[in-house]
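Field reference: sequence -> structure
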Amino acid sequence: MKRAIISFIFVLLFSMGNTASLASAEGRVPVDSSCLNAKVINLKYPMQQLWVEHAWWIRSLIVSTLSDLKDKDAVLARLLRNQEDLGNIIKPYYGVVAGNKLTALLKEHIIIAGKIIDAARKGDQPHVNQFNKDWVRNADEIVVFLTSANPNWSKKVLTEMFYTHLKLTTDEVLDRLKEDWHGDIQTADTNETHLIHMGDILTEGIVKQFPNKFQ
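Structure field:
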């Protein structure tokens, strides 16, 4: 049964295409910290914290779902609250409607992830495939929404970032199903670092679009 379940996750991995985007997405030149003023820092570090929470509450959901733990509903609720926080952090720049829209899209991202994890645990390949298509479609919708709001956010870069996040999250599931605990920990660390970069990209785009707010 374990081999069957793992094969379903491989289907999910291959359907997401070439992962060379990880190298390109992580190859950004970091912003010189000497250029950061207090107003930029007040956005940058809370944004980073929220994406770290995103990484680790998704990890908690993977662990709880695959082990069928009693806390999985509570973990899911906490993870969904993180999506509300991510929507709220952009509201001072894009307004309440836009913030709520981002929250809705990110909540869908989480709900679909939960369905994929549960289907993988059960060895349900048809639903793994179906939910993966929904997951990629949702990621594309998030990218379209963000790049429509801010021309400083590159569609190519954000697409690579979101697809890589999906890949890394899938890898975490695969590592745990294989009981590759060392690989699981490494992948989780990589996902966290990747999402910190996601937060930095969003912060940099906001600062460029609204320079007067950061003087």
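Note: The longest helix spans residues 38-66.
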